[in-house]
C-alpha cells in the first residue's frame, strides 16, 4: 500500500508535499492519523526533517524509533523538535 503524498520517498518530501498542499495543522489540532515530522539536526532536506511519527490519540504516537527498538508506541516526543504536522 502506498501512503505517500505525491509520490514522496522520504519523510522530508512527504512533509513538503503536505505543506505545499495546505494540508498542515497545529499541535493543538492533532487528530489520530496525523503525521508529525521532526527535525533533530541539519541535513539539507526540507526543514531538515529526519523523522516522522503517526499520531494515534491521547498524546501517543507510533513510530519506527531505531533498529534495536523497532516500532514503538509512546508519548509524543519533544514538541520543540516538531517542524510540520500533516493531515494526509
TrEMBL record:
Top-rank lineage group of the source organism: Bacteria
Molecular functions per Gene Ontology: cysteine-type peptidase activity
Every NlpC/P60 domain range: 18-78
Keyword Hydrolase: yes
The entry's keywords: Hydrolase, Protease, Thiol protease
Signal sequence annotation: none
Family matches, as Pfam families: NLPC_P60
InterPro entries: NLP_P60_dom (IPR000064), Papain-like_cys_pep_sf (IPR038765), Peptidase_C40 (IPR051202)
KW Hydrolase (keyword) present: yes
UniProt-listed GO biological process terms: proteolysis
Family from the record: Belongs to the peptidase C40 family.
The protein's name: Invasion associated secreted endopeptidase
Organism of provenance: Agathobacter rectalis
